[in-house]
């Protein structure tokens, strides 16, 4: 439950990759990212043999891996003094994956092959004008395991090292853990391995526990889901429409998102803020973003407020009440609410981020109690999941309320219940949630109809979370009701080729207002690629003239065309639980004179912060906060720019009736329409 977009569908918040069916290798690879100045022929990688070379920006080094049929390939690059991007090409010359999660040190790459042939690994320097040394090594090239334990060992093997943070993966059925494996380190400073029973931060997966707390208190008669928030938090402003507790539980309040809002002030996540800051955020909000119940907009602010309500009606701390009323009754003996990052959790894993120096220790989010902040284990999540079946805690009526999807004012059913996503996946009812704190990522799913669940948690921000989909499909595949044959989402449909002039019609920037994310569609001569918020481009798999797949075929991208001869006007990205609409942006390339119209100082009384807008020596618009370095802005469309490195927001300049810029509005999906007045 990070303050950035990583938590929303795991970086879409997930790492996007594509896996396509393969044919014989063609020698006409055209990588438009690099000049490919190196004329040496590709070198065949031999298993466990290391190759060390120097590289500079503009060069690309090619390596070949020979394989037969369905194989699991795992290799690693050690970046000694340069940040290297890894691209993987199929035997037919099309790119199928890209890896660039770390700037120095260890960068793994894994491939699940489908056909025999030579796979090309292309390495290039990521940073302009850089040069340095790296080494590459092929670790595994073996048949994809059919045994589940062996398969888990394959997919987790890139992190089974004493020099990397780790992960734990578990499968449970009927309340019992049937498969469990942990890899890597829980603490790098003290070389402590990541053990399966170590409590780990689960981020927003915590929200279902907060929802249970509210339902138990409702059952005791201490509150009601229909209560106005102001009944329990009278210091909140009286908005024009009433916000109920149920609005909070279903993310339909219209409140600002606390972490996105504070990010607009230059807050980076590790600085201290107390949970009562959530109250202050709401108190300064002039009006609701939307009418309560009108639309879902994921919101951590409200869940933090719920933890305060629990404390007020029970006269206990949230952490103590949760322990006594939820964790202990379910024998969840390794589960804790971490009050703040200074609270010591016995045997807890330390979280790690990555920067130009390698792995670094990262603290948890402050003010996350209620919205996140729970530490737990696979075994305890198995016990929690079993309660969905038995109703031991709360009873069946409470479980029904917890898992009943919300309904918007217009009668449309949500895919979200109370602190939990509830939807259908291949014919099976599914409860699920993802989570992300500053340096812990989590995925949780439970299929109540077959009483089976899965849990993946890592303390490594460079962990490849896309392998989660492979876990789910391989563990639950035999239980799926619906056949996956011929389903483009699952990558079974025949892969086709489209001409370059047609692919060009689909290129451009597309924006999701809901997510606050921009998707940049690019094209080579042979295929499309997609990049989110100026990140690395990832390859797409072509299923038809309008449909493309990515992330191992788990997600589908569909273009809306104006007509058969015109360019695309919008696209939809379909995940297993939701559809996200992206509208195409009109190109905007402002002149120096146009940029001058935006320069000046802008002040927000809501944020109590001053932005200085200027033009740098590269003729780029910039923004400066008192706490931050000067940040460069990227033009999106007329009067709209974006910043994705720190404040993670769109800056929309507002003009008066005579066309003069007088205001600035900030919006980033979860927090919208924060007004800055232009100062004289």
Walk me through the structure.
By secondary structure, this protein is an alpha+beta fold. Helix content is 16%, strand content 33%. 46% of the residues are buried. Residues 1-39 and 484-492 have low confidence and may be disordered.
Jot down its keywords.
9-stranded antiparallel beta sheet, 680 residues, disordered N terminus, single chain, 40 strands, 33% strand, alpha+beta
Mean pLDDT: 89
Total number of strands? 40
Radius of gyration: 25 Å
Q: Please mark out the parts with pLDDT under 50 across 5 or more consecutive residues, or reply none.
A: 1-39, 484-492
The percentage helix is 10-25%
Count of DSSP helices?
A: 13
- How far from one another are the termini? 39 Å
The share of residues in extended strands comes to: 25-35%
Structural class, please?
Answer: alpha+beta
Strand order of the largest sheet: 26-25-24-23-31-30-29-28-27
Overall geometry comes to: globular
Task: Describe how the helices and strands are arranged.
Layout: E1 43-44, E2 50-56, E3 60-67, E4 71-79, E5 84-89, E6 95-99, E7 105-112, E8 117-125, E9 131-143, H1 148-156, E10 167-173, E11 176-183, E12 185-187, E13 192-193, E14 200-201, H2 207-219, H3 229-232, H4 245-249, H5 258-263, H6 277-283, H7 300-314, H8 318-327, E15 336-337, E16 351-355, E17 358-362, E18 374-376, H9 378-390, H10 396-402, E19 421-425, E20 428-436, E21 441-447, E22 452-458, H11 467-476, H12 500-503, E23 508-512, E24 517-523, E25 528-532, E26 538-539, E27 541-542, E28 547-550, E29 555-561, E30 568-574, E31 579-584, H13 592-596, E32 600-604, E33 609-615, E34 621-624, E35 631-632, E36 634-637, E37 640-643, E38 649-655, E39 661-667, E40 674-678
Parallel strand pairs: 1-3
Antiparallel strand pairs: 2-9, 3-8, 4-7, 4-9, 5-6, 5-8, 10-11, 10-22, 12-13, 14-18, 15-18, 16-17, 19-20, 20-21, 21-22, 23-24, 23-31, 24-25, 25-26, 27-28, 28-29, 29-30, 30-31, 32-33, 32-40, 33-34, 34-35, 36-37, 37-38, 38-39, 39-40
Helix pairs in contact: 2-7, 2-10, 6-7
């Amino acid at each position: 439950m990070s303050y950035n977009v990583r938590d929303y569908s795991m970086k879409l918040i997930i790492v996007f990759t594509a896996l396509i069916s393969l044919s014989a290798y063609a020698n006409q690879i055209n990588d438009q990212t690099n000049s490919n100045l190196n004329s040496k022929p590709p070198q065949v990688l031999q298993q466990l043999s290391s190759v060390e070379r120097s590289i500079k920006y503009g060069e690309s080094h090619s390596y070949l891996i020979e394989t037969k049929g369905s194989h699991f390939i795992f290799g690693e690059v050690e970046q000694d003094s340069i940040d290297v991007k890894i691209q993987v090409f199929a035997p037919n010359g099309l790119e199928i994956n890209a890896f660039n999660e770390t700037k120095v040190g260890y960068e793994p790459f894994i491939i699940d092959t489908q056909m025999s042939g030579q796979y090309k690994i292309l390495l290039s320097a990521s940073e302009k004008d850089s040069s340095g040394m790296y080494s590459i090594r092929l670790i595994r090239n073996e048949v994809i395991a059919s045994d589940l334990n062996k398969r888990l060992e394959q997919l987790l093997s890139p992190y089974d090292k004493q020099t990397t943070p780790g992960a734990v993966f578990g499968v449970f059925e009927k309340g019992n853990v049937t498969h469990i494996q942990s890899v890597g380190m829980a603490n790098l400073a003290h070389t402590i391995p990541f053990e399966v029973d170590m409590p780990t931060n689960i981020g927003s997966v915590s929200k279902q526990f907060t929802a249970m707390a509210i339902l138990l208190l409702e059952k005791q008669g201490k509150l009601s889901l229909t209560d106005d928030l102001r009944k329990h938090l009278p210091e909140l402003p009286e908005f024009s429409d009433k916000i109920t507790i149920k609005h909070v539980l279903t993310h339909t309040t219209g409140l600002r998102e606390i972490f996105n809002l504070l990010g607009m002030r230059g807050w980076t996540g590790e600085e201290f803020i107390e949970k009562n800051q959530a109250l202050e955020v709401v108190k300064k909000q002039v009006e609701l973003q939307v009418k309560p119940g009108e639309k879902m907009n994921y919101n951590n602010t409200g869940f933090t407020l719920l933890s305060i309500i629990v404390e007020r009606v029970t006269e206990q701390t949230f952490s103590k009440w949760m322990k006594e009323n939820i964790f202990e009754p379910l024998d969840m003996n390794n589960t804790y609410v971490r009050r703040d990052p200074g609270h010591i959790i016995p045997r807890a894993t330390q979280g790690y981020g990555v920067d130009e120096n390698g792995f670094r220790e990262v603290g948890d989010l402050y003010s996350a109690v209620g919205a996140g902040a729970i530490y737990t284990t696979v075994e305890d999540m198995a016990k929690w999941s079993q309660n969905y079946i038995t109703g031991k805690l709360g009873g069946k009526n409470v479980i029904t309320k917890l898992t009943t999807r919300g309904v918007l004012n217009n009668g449309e059913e949500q895919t979200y219940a109370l602190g939990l996503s509830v939807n259908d996946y291949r014919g099976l009812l599914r409860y699920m949630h993802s989570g992300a704190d500053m340096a812990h990522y989590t995925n949780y799913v439970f299929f109540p109809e077959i009483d089976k669940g899965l849990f993946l948690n890592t303390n490594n921000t460079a962990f490849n979370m896309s392998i989660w989909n492979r876990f789910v499909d391989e563990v639950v595949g035999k239980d799926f009701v619906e056949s996956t044959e011929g389903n483009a989402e699952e990558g079974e449909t025949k892969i086709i080729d489209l001409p370059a002039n047609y692919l060009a019609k689909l290129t451009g920037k597309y924006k999701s207002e809901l997510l606050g994310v921009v998707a940049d569609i690019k094209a080579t001569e042979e295929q499309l690629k997609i990049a989110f918020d100026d990140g690395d481009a990832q390859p797409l798999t072509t299923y038809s003239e309008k449909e493309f797949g990515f992330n191992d075929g788990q997600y589908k991208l569909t273009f809306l065309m104006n007509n058969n001869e015109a360019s695309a006007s919008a696209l939809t990205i379909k995940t297993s639980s939701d559809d996200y609409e992206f509208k195409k942006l009109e190109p905007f390339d402002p002149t120096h004179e146009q940029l001058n119209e935006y320069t000046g100082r802008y002040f927000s009384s809501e944020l109590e912060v001053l932005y200085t807008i200027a033009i740098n020596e590269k003729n780029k618009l910039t923004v400066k906060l008192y706490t931050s370095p000067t940040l460069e802005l990227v033009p999106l469309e007329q009067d709209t720019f974006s910043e994705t490195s720190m404040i993670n927001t769109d800056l929309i300049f507002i003009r008066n009736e005579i066309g003069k810029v007088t205001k600035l509005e900030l919006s980033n999906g979860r927090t919208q329409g924060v007004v800055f007045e232009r100062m004289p």
